[in-house]
Design a protein that fits this description.
71 residues, mainly beta, 5-stranded antiparallel beta sheet
Amino acid sequence: YKDSHQVACFKLATKTLDHLIPLEGIPSYLSLAPSGKTLYVTYEGNNQIFTVDIASQKVQPCILVTDAPHA
C-alpha cells in the first residue's frame, strides 16, 4: 500500500489480498527475484536494501549500499 510500512502480497489467480508483510520504513522500490522467492526492498535515504523471504514472510538482514539504491 502506498505510503505504508508494509508490502501487500496478492494471489494472482484470484486477484485478492493474501497477506501483508510489515516493514521498518516506507519502501521506495521493490524488485522480485526471478525465482519469486525473494523480494528486495529499498529505502531511499538510508542506503539499505532489505530482503524479504516470501515463503516465511520474514524480513532478512539488510544489505548496505553506498548511495540511493534503486530496484
